[in-house]
Specification:
This protein is of the alpha/beta class. The protein has 11 helices and 11 strands. It has 3 domains: 83 residues, Orthogonal Bundle (Arc Repressor Mutant, subunit A), CATH 1.10.10; 110 residues, 3-Layer(aba) Sandwich (D-Maltodextrin-Binding Protein, domain 2), CATH 3.40.190.10; 104 residues, Periplasmic binding protein-like II (D-Maltodextrin-Binding Protein, domain 2), CATH 3.40.190.10. Helices cover 43% and strands 23% of the residues. α1 packs across α2. The model has no long low-confidence stretch (mean pLDDT 91).
């Protein structure tokens, strides 16, 4: 046996995500590189670790045992690294953050320098929809979560980070004539919605309810990125967060369509359970944000104020 820690990490991530593609994304590697390392790792065992059926990869019972062992080995390696850094007086430990899907355009800018300045910190950031994010907070599974709508039924504390602006958006080549305050203008449009449990969908549906507008639901997609691609393909219109369409607006691929009552403004906020006992890493991160938040808004999100 001559497998490496890198191969253990890759196989453990494939077992966790049940996907070579997702493992590659989370490890910031190319899919071919992950596939090659999986093949090399598998070659060291006489018993199959995985089984491919159609386009899906399944972990065998033996593979699950190897993945569990790999997780324990990697955890011990991390502990050794942490102890070494801690002995030197460095900040060490895990920082776990759950982020709503559109928050992937926000959170990295508020955390990257903190992580780079503290190599002893391991970041776990899960990107999912609002419902699942709130579940992780309620279950005390994470240090923090990033949301654009504060939960009403959960006792939390929060730190505002950035305004969230949602506009009516369509393809720049779309031909529909949309009047600023015409309900019929919107009723005639094919709309693309996010899935149930999405904060963006919640805001969008509330807008139509408040305006008493009945719209045609053409598509329902599971991420804002998927909605954006549908708009680029000129499949319809949507109410979208500005934060995720900067390049498409600047390249004139998509356009903001003026309509009375828009943009809808909410607030990107970091939240945590009220009374939560934070780790040293979490406390340090909050102090870091208090110091740098204003500078990040000025330097990174200045373009945001132009809309």
């Amino acid at each position: 046996m001559n497998y490496t820690l890198h191969q253990l990490q890759i196989f453990q991530k494939i077992a966790q995500t049940k996907s070579v593609t997702k493992a590659a994304d989370e490890l910031h590697l190319t899919q071919p590189a992950v596939s090659i390392q999986l093949k090399n790792f598998q070659a060291q065992f006489d018993i199959p670790l995985t089984e491919v059926i159609g386009r899906n990869i399944y972990i065998t019972d033996f593979g699950k045992e190897i993945a569990a062992a790999a997780e324990k080995i990697l955890e011990q390696v991390y502990n050794i690294n942490y102890k070494t850094l801690a002995y030197r007086g460095a900040l060490t430990g895990k920082l776990k953050i759950s982020v709503v899907s559109t928050g992937k355009y926000v959170m990295p800018y508020f955390i990257s320098d903190f992580i780079n300045q503290n190599p002893g910190i391991e970041l776990e950031m899960d990107v999912t929809n609002k419902t699942k994010v709130i579940e992780t907070v309620a279950g005390n599974e994470v240090d923090f979560a990033l949301v654009s709508i504060l939960p009403r039924k959960l006792r939390i504390e929060h730190m505002p980070l950035l305004k969230n602006k949602l506009y009516l958006v369509g393809n720049s080549k779309a031909k529909h004539v949309i009047k600023m305050n015409s309900k019929k203008s919107l009723s005639d449009l094919p709309f693309i919605f996010r899935e149930k449990g999405s904060g963006t969908r919640q805001v969008m549906e509330q807008f139509f309810t408040d305006k008493e507008i009945s719209v045609l639901r053409k598509l329902e997609l599971t991420s804002n990125e998927a909605v954006k691609q549908a708009l680029l393909a000129n499949l319809g219109y949507s109410i979208m967060p500005l934060i995720g369409i900067k390049n498409e607006l600047q390249n004139n691929d998509l356009k903001i369509i003026p309509y009375k009552g828009l943009p809808i403004e909410t607030q990107w906020s970091l939240i945590w359970l009220k009374g939560k006992k934070h780790s040293n890493v979490a406390i340090a991160f909050l102090e870091y944000l208090k110091e740098v938040k204003k500078g990040i808004l000025t330097n990174i999100f200045k373009w945001y104020e132009d809309y």
